[in-house]
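Chapter review: from sequence to fold.
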Amino acid sequence: MAEPTIDAGAGPVALRTSPLGHLEARMRAAAVTGERGVRLAEWPFITMVNLRVAPASEAADRIEKTLGAPLPRQCGQTAASGPHTVLWLGPDEWLVVTPVGGTSVAAELREALAGDPGSVVDVSANRTTLELSGPAARQVLEKGCPLDLHPRAFGPGRAVSTTVGPVAVLLWQIDEAPTYRLFPRSSFADYLARWLIDAMSEYRGPALP
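The C-alpha coordinate string follows.
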Protein backbone atom coordinates (compact mmCIF):
# COMPACT_ATOMS: atom_id res chain seq x y z
CA MET A 1 0.00 0.00 0.00
CA ALA A 2 1.30 3.44 -0.88
CA GLU A 3 2.51 5.67 1.92
CA PRO A 4 0.16 8.58 2.71
CA THR A 5 1.46 11.91 1.51
CA ILE A 6 1.37 15.15 3.44
CA ASP A 7 1.70 18.59 1.92
CA ALA A 8 5.11 19.81 3.07
CA GLY A 9 3.72 23.32 3.27
CA ALA A 10 0.91 22.35 5.62
CA GLY A 11 1.84 23.27 9.18
CA PRO A 12 0.27 22.02 12.43
CA VAL A 13 -2.58 24.52 12.14
CA ALA A 14 -3.59 23.28 8.69
CA LEU A 15 -3.48 19.63 9.81
CA ARG A 16 -5.31 19.85 13.14
CA THR A 17 -8.73 18.23 13.51
CA SER A 18 -11.62 19.45 15.62
CA PRO A 19 -12.73 16.99 18.35
CA LEU A 20 -16.34 17.46 17.23
CA GLY A 21 -16.06 18.11 13.51
CA HIS A 22 -17.78 14.78 12.82
CA LEU A 23 -20.85 15.95 14.79
CA GLU A 24 -21.19 19.41 13.23
CA ALA A 25 -24.16 18.50 11.03
CA ARG A 26 -25.88 16.61 13.85
CA MET A 27 -25.52 19.54 16.25
CA ARG A 28 -26.89 21.91 13.62
CA ALA A 29 -29.86 19.60 12.96
CA ALA A 30 -30.61 19.39 16.70
CA ALA A 31 -31.27 23.15 16.96
CA VAL A 32 -34.72 24.14 18.23
CA THR A 33 -36.28 27.52 17.44
CA GLY A 34 -39.01 29.54 19.11
CA GLU A 35 -39.79 30.22 22.76
CA ARG A 36 -38.23 26.88 23.76
CA GLY A 37 -35.28 27.30 21.44
CA VAL A 38 -31.83 25.92 22.11
CA ARG A 39 -28.75 25.58 19.91
CA LEU A 40 -25.46 23.73 20.25
CA ALA A 41 -22.24 24.45 18.37
CA GLU A 42 -18.53 23.84 18.74
CA TRP A 43 -16.00 26.67 18.82
CA PRO A 44 -12.81 24.73 18.02
CA PHE A 45 -9.19 25.83 18.33
CA ILE A 46 -9.72 28.63 20.86
CA THR A 47 -6.44 29.47 22.57
CA MET A 48 -6.40 28.49 26.24
CA VAL A 49 -3.48 29.11 28.58
CA ASN A 50 -3.23 27.74 32.10
CA LEU A 51 -1.62 30.29 34.38
CA ARG A 52 -0.28 29.78 37.89
CA VAL A 53 1.28 32.59 39.89
CA ALA A 54 1.10 34.00 43.42
CA PRO A 55 -1.73 36.58 43.21
CA ALA A 56 -0.01 39.23 45.35
CA SER A 57 3.35 38.98 43.61
CA GLU A 58 5.17 41.38 41.32
CA ALA A 59 4.91 38.73 38.61
CA ALA A 60 1.10 38.81 38.94
CA ASP A 61 1.18 42.59 38.54
CA ARG A 62 3.21 42.26 35.33
CA ILE A 63 0.85 39.59 34.01
CA GLU A 64 -2.18 41.77 34.72
CA LYS A 65 -0.58 44.61 32.77
CA THR A 66 0.14 42.26 29.88
CA LEU A 67 -3.45 41.01 29.82
CA GLY A 68 -4.97 44.43 30.49
CA ALA A 69 -7.25 42.73 33.02
CA PRO A 70 -7.03 41.86 36.72
CA LEU A 71 -6.64 38.27 37.82
CA PRO A 72 -9.97 37.32 39.46
CA ARG A 73 -9.60 36.62 43.17
CA GLN A 74 -12.78 34.64 43.96
CA CYS A 75 -14.38 31.42 42.81
CA GLY A 76 -16.69 31.99 39.84
CA GLN A 77 -15.23 35.34 38.85
CA THR A 78 -13.99 36.27 35.39
CA ALA A 79 -12.29 39.35 33.98
CA ALA A 80 -12.04 40.50 30.38
CA SER A 81 -10.03 42.96 28.36
CA GLY A 82 -9.84 43.09 24.58
CA PRO A 83 -9.62 39.54 23.22
CA HIS A 84 -8.68 37.99 26.58
CA THR A 85 -10.95 36.57 29.26
CA VAL A 86 -9.46 35.29 32.51
CA LEU A 87 -11.40 32.58 34.36
CA TRP A 88 -10.69 31.72 38.01
CA LEU A 89 -9.68 28.09 38.60
CA GLY A 90 -8.17 28.30 42.08
CA PRO A 91 -6.47 30.67 44.56
CA ASP A 92 -3.35 30.84 42.37
CA GLU A 93 -4.62 29.38 39.08
CA TRP A 94 -6.47 30.83 36.08
CA LEU A 95 -7.43 29.94 32.53
CA VAL A 96 -6.78 32.64 29.95
CA VAL A 97 -9.11 32.26 26.96
CA THR A 98 -8.36 34.03 23.69
CA PRO A 99 -10.08 33.68 20.27
CA VAL A 100 -8.60 31.64 17.45
CA GLY A 101 -5.32 33.15 16.35
CA GLY A 102 -4.25 34.35 19.79
CA THR A 103 -1.36 31.91 19.95
CA SER A 104 1.16 34.55 21.05
CA VAL A 105 -0.48 35.07 24.44
CA ALA A 106 1.42 32.20 26.08
CA ALA A 107 4.75 33.67 25.00
CA GLU A 108 3.71 37.10 26.22
CA LEU A 109 2.70 35.71 29.62
CA ARG A 110 5.94 33.74 29.97
CA GLU A 111 7.85 36.94 29.26
CA ALA A 112 5.81 38.72 31.94
CA LEU A 113 6.47 35.90 34.42
CA ALA A 114 10.17 36.58 33.82
CA GLY A 115 11.44 33.47 35.57
CA ASP A 116 9.60 34.14 38.83
CA PRO A 117 7.80 31.22 40.55
CA GLY A 118 4.76 30.15 38.52
CA SER A 119 3.89 28.52 35.23
CA VAL A 120 2.37 29.35 31.85
CA VAL A 121 1.19 26.36 29.80
CA ASP A 122 -0.70 26.41 26.51
CA VAL A 123 -3.49 23.85 27.04
CA SER A 124 -5.46 24.63 23.87
CA ALA A 125 -5.31 21.02 22.66
CA ASN A 126 -6.50 19.73 26.04
CA ARG A 127 -10.06 21.03 25.71
CA THR A 128 -12.57 22.10 23.13
CA THR A 129 -15.41 24.59 23.50
CA LEU A 130 -19.12 23.86 23.21
CA GLU A 131 -21.60 26.74 23.08
CA LEU A 132 -25.16 26.12 24.26
CA SER A 133 -27.56 29.01 23.79
CA GLY A 134 -31.22 29.94 23.60
CA PRO A 135 -34.22 30.33 25.92
CA ALA A 136 -34.13 26.65 26.98
CA ALA A 137 -30.35 26.39 27.42
CA ARG A 138 -30.49 26.60 31.21
CA GLN A 139 -33.20 23.93 31.40
CA VAL A 140 -31.08 21.61 29.24
CA LEU A 141 -28.08 22.02 31.53
CA GLU A 142 -30.21 21.56 34.63
CA LYS A 143 -30.93 17.99 33.53
CA GLY A 144 -27.40 17.00 34.47
CA CYS A 145 -25.60 19.87 36.23
CA PRO A 146 -25.61 20.01 40.06
CA LEU A 147 -25.16 23.80 40.16
CA ASP A 148 -27.96 26.23 40.92
CA LEU A 149 -28.11 27.93 37.53
CA HIS A 150 -30.99 30.28 38.38
CA PRO A 151 -30.08 33.90 37.53
CA ARG A 152 -30.12 34.79 41.22
CA ALA A 153 -27.16 32.44 41.74
CA PHE A 154 -25.39 32.18 38.37
CA GLY A 155 -25.37 34.80 35.67
CA PRO A 156 -23.27 36.44 32.94
CA GLY A 157 -19.59 36.56 33.78
CA ARG A 158 -19.70 33.54 36.09
CA ALA A 159 -17.49 30.50 35.42
CA VAL A 160 -16.99 27.45 37.62
CA SER A 161 -15.73 23.88 37.40
CA THR A 162 -18.61 21.42 37.58
CA THR A 163 -20.08 18.40 35.80
CA VAL A 164 -22.70 18.10 33.07
CA GLY A 165 -23.97 14.56 32.97
CA PRO A 166 -20.92 12.50 33.94
CA VAL A 167 -18.45 14.85 32.22
CA ALA A 168 -16.26 17.34 34.08
CA VAL A 169 -16.38 20.78 32.48
CA LEU A 170 -15.55 24.40 33.08
CA LEU A 171 -18.91 26.16 32.65
CA TRP A 172 -19.02 29.85 31.72
CA GLN A 173 -22.15 31.93 31.17
CA ILE A 174 -21.37 34.74 28.77
CA ASP A 175 -24.69 36.58 28.43
CA GLU A 176 -28.33 36.71 29.52
CA ALA A 177 -29.76 34.95 26.41
CA PRO A 178 -28.55 32.73 28.10
CA THR A 179 -25.43 31.55 26.33
CA TYR A 180 -23.08 29.11 28.02
CA ARG A 181 -19.65 27.92 26.99
CA LEU A 182 -18.56 24.52 28.21
CA PHE A 183 -14.93 23.43 28.20
CA PRO A 184 -14.68 19.61 28.35
CA ARG A 185 -11.54 17.59 27.83
CA SER A 186 -11.26 16.80 24.14
CA SER A 187 -11.48 13.06 24.80
CA PHE A 188 -14.89 13.51 26.50
CA ALA A 189 -16.30 16.06 24.04
CA ASP A 190 -18.05 13.50 21.83
CA TYR A 191 -19.92 12.00 24.79
CA LEU A 192 -20.91 15.43 26.13
CA ALA A 193 -22.13 16.68 22.74
CA ARG A 194 -24.29 13.58 22.27
CA TRP A 195 -25.62 13.95 25.83
CA LEU A 196 -26.61 17.57 25.16
CA ILE A 197 -28.21 16.72 21.80
CA ASP A 198 -30.36 14.11 23.54
CA ALA A 199 -31.24 16.54 26.34
CA MET A 200 -32.31 19.15 23.76
CA SER A 201 -34.66 16.85 21.89
CA GLU A 202 -37.72 17.27 24.15
CA TYR A 203 -37.87 21.01 23.42
CA ARG A 204 -39.03 20.31 19.88
CA GLY A 205 -42.46 19.45 21.28
CA PRO A 206 -44.98 21.65 23.13
CA ALA A 207 -44.46 22.42 26.81
CA LEU A 208 -46.40 20.13 29.13
CA PRO A 209 -49.21 21.83 31.07
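Two observations follow directly from the output. Residues 10 and 170 are 32 Å apart (CA to CA). Residues 1-11 have pLDDT under 50 and may be disordered.
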